[in-house]
Predict the structure.
Amino acid sequence: MESDFRQSPLALAVLSLLHAAPLHPYAMQRLLKLWGKDAVINVGQRANLYKTIRRLDEAGLIAVRQTERDQQYPERTVYELTEAGRRACRDWLTDMLARPRNEFPQFPAALSVIMLLSPDEAATVLAERAAALRGHLAAAEAMLAGHPELPRVVLMDDDYLRAMLSAELAWVEGVVADLRGGWSWSREELEAVSARLSPGSDPLSPPHR
């Protein structure tokens, strides 16, 4: 049954947490946020976490260890890792590290239709994004600098995010500079391209005028 489970970052996070010790869902969510892993794993919605845990349990990758009862808290189910879950965790980890995947983020999708804006509008919104990226990059650098006692291996995700933020910022700033330096497009130009590439037309023919 484990082979039918579709791997995900959240499922991997649950299995990795249970490597250390049995935990209940609330503790899993709290630890992921405490360690800053919510920057790379979507743990904001507890319902998604519970759904993932239920599916992992049904797949035999985790199992109920015990149920905790405390007067101050609702009843909590503690889960532990199974041998199948231990194998799956390692398999998913190596697969995610080794094989790039197209994860369909929002920004490239928006860039694919940026021509719906005027060049001036595009420059304005991309400059706004660049400002936000500078803030995120400064926060990432401060976080890394604030933990010199931690070994590099436990900060790999933060180091990667910093590198990606830096690269995206440089690219966005370059596009803004091009737009403000004269790069432009027009409705007529885009309509000509659309006509040339429409079904039944010769894609190698010159644009219609």
About this structure: Residues 119-145 form the longest helix (27 residues). Confidence is low (pLDDT under 50) at residues 203-209. The chain has two domains: 2-98, 106-197.
